[in-house]
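Protocol step 4 of 5: obtain the predicted structure for the target chain.
Materials: sequence only (see below). No template structures provided, no constraints applied. The aim of this step is simply to have a reference model before the mutagenesis design in step 5. Sequence pasted as it appears in the construct record:
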Amino acid sequence: MASVTGFLIPMTTFACSLKQTKLPTGISSLNSASLSMQGNGFPSLRMRPARFQISCAAKPETVDKVCAIVRKQLALSADTAVTGDSKFAALGADSLDTVEIVMGLEEEFGISVEEENAQTITTVQDAADMIEKLIEA
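Step 4 output (structure tokens):
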């Protein structure tokens, strides 16, 4: 037989808030959420609506151009597969190669990539997605 016991903790007010935050899961931001406990009642959670931004993968032609630039910068043979999922490190790129790839992308697409953005690029798809985001802006 199971039993449940509990106790009451008097609380005057307890509040917690989350403000606008960058989330890594593809959700651009959480506008706000709050948790409050007042008196002897149950806690209540209120979430205010936020705008969610859904981004799609880059256009195939952008991915193809990035693949060509990566192939050229790394002097890869024609039989080496380079796809959107290809990681620069797996293709043999070191940090200097990655900088040269980014420079080639900037020249080809007429964009300027901030250093902190450049450091987050690890795959061909990452590069293509970043390019389309910069072109849209």
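Step 4 remarks: Residues 1-37 have pLDDT under 50 and may be disordered. Strands lie at 11-18, 32-39, 44-48.
Proceed to step 5.
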